[in-house]
Amino acid sequence: xxxxxxxxxxxxxxxxxxxxxxxxxxxxxxxxxxxxxxxxxxxxxxxxxxxxxxxxxxxxxxxxxxxxxxxxxxxxxxxxxxxxxxxxxxxxxxxxxxxxxxxxxxxxxxxxxxxxxxxxxxxxxxxxxxxxxxxxxxxxxxxxxxxxxxxxxxxxxxxxxxxxxxxxxxxxxxxxxxxxxxxxxxxxxxxxxxxxxxxxxxxxxxxxxxxxxxxxxxxxxxxxxxxxxxxxxxxxxxxxxxxxxxxxxxxxxxxxxxxxxxxxxxxxxxxxxxxxxxxxxxxxxxxxxxxxxxxxxxxxxxxxxxxxxxxxxxxxxxxxxxxxxxxxxxxxxxxxxxxxxxxxxxxxxxxxxxxxxxxxxxxxxxxxxxxxxxxxxxxxxxxxxxxxxxxxxxxxxxxxxxxxxxxxxxxxxxxxxxxxxxxxxxxxxxxxxxxxxxxxxxxxxxxxxxxxxxxxxxxxxxxxxxxxxxxxxxxxxxxxxxxxxxxxxxxxxxxxxxxxxxxxxxxxxxxxxxxxxxxxxxxxxxxxxxxxxxxxxxxxxxxxxxxxxx
Amino acid sequence: xxxxxxxxxxxxxxxxxxxxxxxxxxxxxxxxxxxxxxxxxxxxxxxxxxxxxxxxxxxxxxxxxxxxxxxxxxxxxxxxxxxxxxxxxxxxxxxxxxxxxxxxxxxxxxxxxxxxxxxxxxxxxxxxxxxxxxxxxxxxxxxxxxxxxxxxxxxxxxxxxxxxxxxxxxxxxxxxxxxxxxxxxxxxxxxxxxxxxxxxxxxxxxxxxxxxxxxxxxxxxxxxxxxxxxxxxxxxxxxxxxxxxxxxxxxxxxxxxxxxxxxxxxxxxxxxxxxxx
Lengths: 550, 277
Description:
The complex is a heterodimer.
Chain A: H1 3-14, H2 20-28, E1 36-41, H3 56-62, E2 70-72, E3 78-80, E4 83-88, E5 94-99, H4 113-125, E6 137-144, E7 147-152, H5 159-163, H6 173-184, E8 194-200, E9 204-209, E10 223-228, H7 232-241, E11 246-248, H8 255-260, E12 264-279, H9 289-298, H10 301-309, E13 314-315, H11 345-354, E14 375-380, H12 388-401, E15 405-410, H13 413-419, E16 431-436, H14 444-449, H15 469-480, H16 484-501, E17 504-517, E18 520-521, E19 537-538, H17 540-545
Parallel strand pairs in A: 1-10, 1-11, 14-15, 14-16
Antiparallel strand pairs in A: 2-3, 4-5, 5-7, 6-7, 8-9, 9-10, 11-17, 12-16, 12-17, 13-17, 18-19
Helix pairs in contact in A: 9-11, 15-16
Chain B: H1 2-8, H2 11-33, H3 65-101, H4 103-118, H5 121-132, H6 136-162, H7 166-173, H8 178-214, H9 226-234, H10 245-269
Helix pairs in contact in B: 2-3, 2-10, 3-4, 3-6, 3-8, 4-6, 5-6, 6-8, 7-8, 8-9, 8-10, 9-10
């Protein structure tokens, strides 16, 4: 039975519709050939080797040159790319892919089953950074010139969406074997529509059109140049002057101004990244479910969205951890609620009281029954994720309103990284402000890494040291269930259980933005923080009209 | 009294002296004169422009900016005065001691001081604050220690000159011990240049404290500080430019007044200095 049809239908039905209006107008016009696209990115990439870098900015570079077996569309659906079709064995442990014939890597070597098998086997052998999302992967084997099989030790439902995750792109084994991983960190050799020509670390990277590209008639652009501009204000200015054709990560406070400019299109979409405060369940107060719920109700989420994100850069969460566009997402709000755990100070105070926390000596801070005051630290970064420091300050204020004293500790990136990878006995934090993104748009990742008991740090990413038998049971079931309806039901039960337990404080979901000049057509923004434009094209007349001469 | 009589003759000194006194008065009475609670968050009133209710507007969290500037004045005054005192109390005794004692103790102490003077003060302060932690005490220690070498040098220099004086020789001949000589005979005669130096470094302390807090290494939020407020305001410079006015004006007025008052004090205490044009 082919599952790919089922998955496609399911994911497509659930996914958020992103830029339908824009697409319609763009598709009316006939694509024009030629021109160079200039794209300003926010940060430099420490490695362009997909096996060692999960950063979405890097993915946004190599997607011009390196392609996956399948790809994610704007509506979140998964479409065939280098793999034409696939079948699953009756025991659901073997996937067999039929590959596009006649495809060549940029170095001239043929793209075939052997190349695909090599990449996945090498990923396992060398422990590529994405290995965890190929959970249970055993081996890949070339079954013929254009047929490759992947064998797993247990049934794995999320394989197809996970294969669309950009780091799993198929790079040239020939180039890799000849030059090694170090060389691949600055050179990307794949089958994509563009070939890498220049690379200046921290400055720019330039791609030129691949004349032998396997999809006939594509791409339209002659070249793509990606430049690094860390300051968002500068990126906005470059876009306004037309010195770049598109840019990302504009500050929310710049958006209204840019939107007034008719030569600029601004698109804002919800991402798959949700803010949360990880609560350390090893801290006695936070082991108490009523305290955790009280914290959730004490957060004025609409206030956060308004003051930190200008009502643009974030949206209220409608489900715990999962966001619109993720497989199995369901709106988990009760009727009439604006978000999960809607802001309710009275309810929060009552829950604190039920948990035994009251302000007994009238100093403004609650104490437990023994008279110990509830004072907790909150670890955060500053500028690691947009608005993190401001959100931390608001969390501090909101918790003060229910009598909890919070001490904010700002750590720089490296120290922060070290502080949040410790196990239950070593971890120094009571609370950590973090965000969880789902780059594969499949709930398998948070289910297996975030809330599972086996995923307690230092192994997975369960930094709460949260443990629930029911959550573990549902996660394991969903991980291996291939039947669509059943799997989605497990996911829904998992979310309902999270709402009962409140293992973390759920905060708003971040939004992504993309600003492009209006003469640029068919450039995309995906909820997984990718901004592909390999098949974009430039309207020359419109460019001239806007006074852009390049 | 002679000092005040001569100080009064300088108009610049009077005007800026008055401003400085005013700022200190604001700092001392901050808790009573803030029009609103400087910490009270009101997310229904974020980024409101200046109005009769909020003279300098409200910030990202709907807090009253004027109240925050006033509280920040207190924080700055407290931190910088403490740091200045810290620098004087660590630097001067060491400088006087090594200057009087001489020999290898002096050589070692001065080479160490030279080493510290190689670093720009703000860099040294950043290193210390990272080690000590970004708390109020941490900042005081960082700024104080970073400036202490200057005071060691000055105290040593003036002590070197003073110890050759006849009254010191007389004290030695009378059998006084060195602590007694340093405190009773040398200190009264070298205090003037040290007071001048302390006044002149005060604005440097203010600037450095603001620089540290601008970099997020100062007093931690929600407690306001000018540098930190400037940092927050710069992100909204285009949409809410009024946010930057309060902290910027306070910083400029404080530093300018402290600088000019320092100059005038120096001239007053040392009439040999040429008159400013």
